[in-house]
Amino acid sequence: MKQQIAASLELAFSQYGFAEPNVDKLKTACNVSLRTLYKHYPSKEAMVVAALEYRHQRYLAFLDNGPNQNAQSSLEIIFQRLETWMSENAPHGCLSMNAIAAFPDNLIINKVVKEHKAEVRQFLALKSQRAELANSLFLLHEGIASAWPILGADAVKSALVSLSALMHTPQPTH
User: Fold this and answer.
1) Entry's SUPFAM superfamilies (predicted)?
2) Is 9:44 a contact under the CB 8 Å cutoff?
């Protein structure tokens, strides 16, 4: 039940943002009683955190394309999947960044978002097989998510061009 509520909260915050839905609207979106909602998530902050954590797991599972074969093609697939994710799940931009914008002073929400972003960065480093490119790949990823509401699929096309150039830079020798 708790996971089901978290999934519904993720969808509600994605559709309505963080400012608009009050707890009554969230209860309706979750199709549970107010008592059940508060039993599992005793505050709106807890509801936001649950939605973000649920989305984090879903997001990384969605992007993961299995074991690495060729690093560049693996990253290209990830960016193409990101295009699908943005069009289907985040047409208004990154839910995590929207949460920080809505709750800039909330330490718990900021911590959850920072942990999510750190894991995405690590995931991209792993898939690239080039740890030294982690920050650059993360910036491309975040650029797609940030520019999506304005550029749409063109953000992915531009990132793929940059990705190709980045992956062809020589690896540093130690």
Assistant:
1) Homeodomain-like (SSF46689)
2) no
